[in-house]
Design goal:
single chain, alpha+beta, TolA/TonB C-terminal domain, 4-stranded antiparallel β-sheet, 2 helices, 7 strands, disordered N terminus
């Protein structure tokens, strides 16, 4: 499994075949207002969630400073067993610089079928 590796592809999903798909700007925000993700770190699919066949989408709000560093992440919805992994990964993401800090709405999809 390759979870936890950095994926520097812009505009594409990270996670490859590990069943995790980050989808920036998937809820609650106008796509034109979303900051570009410069570096993504794919979440590690928790082993307990795999064994229990837990899948779903975790919605997060990430506070990003002007330099593009994530300073805070909060789960809006999703299974707790998955949200911890999603939060840990998003804390390592880097966004494009902007004039001021912002809150980015993100979705991380955990799917064992991928």
């Amino acid at each position: 499994m390759t979870g936890g590796r950095e994926d520097e592809q812009k505009g594409t999903s990270a996670g490859g075949g590990d069943g995790v798909r980050p989808v920036p700007g998937a809820y609650g925000a106008d796509a034109a207002e979303q900051r570009a993700v410069k570096t993504r770190v794919a979440p590690v699919y928790p082993e307990i969630a795999k064994r229990m066949r837990i899948m779903g989408v975790v919605k997060l709000d990430a506070t990003v400073d002007a330099d593009g560093k994530v300073t805070d992440v909060k789960t809006v919805s999703g299974f707790r067993v998955l949200s911890t992994a999603a939060e840990d990964a998003v804390r390592k993401w880097r966004f494009a610089a902007a004039p001021a800090s912002s809150t980015e709405s993100l979705e991380i999809k955990f799917d064992l079928g991928q």
